[in-house]
Specification:
Blueprint: H1 17-31, H2 39-45, E1 56-57, E2 77-84, E3 87-91, H3 94-102, H4 104-107, H5 116-120, E4 128-135, E5 138-142, H6 145-153, H7 156-169
Parallel strand pairs: 1-3
Antiparallel strand pairs: 2-3, 4-5
Amino acid sequence: MWLTRPDPAAAAIIPGAALTITLALALTATLAPLPEVGPRRAAAEEGLPSQTRIALLTLNGFDPVSYFLEGGPQAGAARFELSWDGRVWRFASGANREAFRDDPPVYAPRLGGYDAAGILEGRLVDADPLVFAVIGERLYLFRNAERRARFLAEPDLVRQAEAAWPALRSLQDVPPMDAPR
């Protein structure tokens, strides 16, 4: 099972959701000490993994290919999704999804999608997917406009951030995987 964020267009507030979540958490805490039964136990007995994989939604659902097209970033749709590098990627069209599938490193944000200035500081800093720059035909994300302006004014910073990235890559929560699905 892949857990992704819901499609923004389909989001709705469900009355009583907070109460339902609270009750579910209480029930989970109550049942935790009980012996494993059901699907988890069956999976363990058959030698199958019992943990569910969670894949992160990349770029807050924006289409990575659209950053390189006229008009800039567009929201992706759940129906045009694929998994690559331990994350879920959404696309505005099937054609964009196929372009990404053919060569993901061309379209994926560099530096793991983290703020390029944060990488220079030796930290993994979340970036805003709407604050970006395409530098040398590669996509870089930034936390804010000031950090982006600094990189655009000093082109050598990109090279420095790229050199610092391998040492920080292992700090990510999700290990990278290669094959798009």
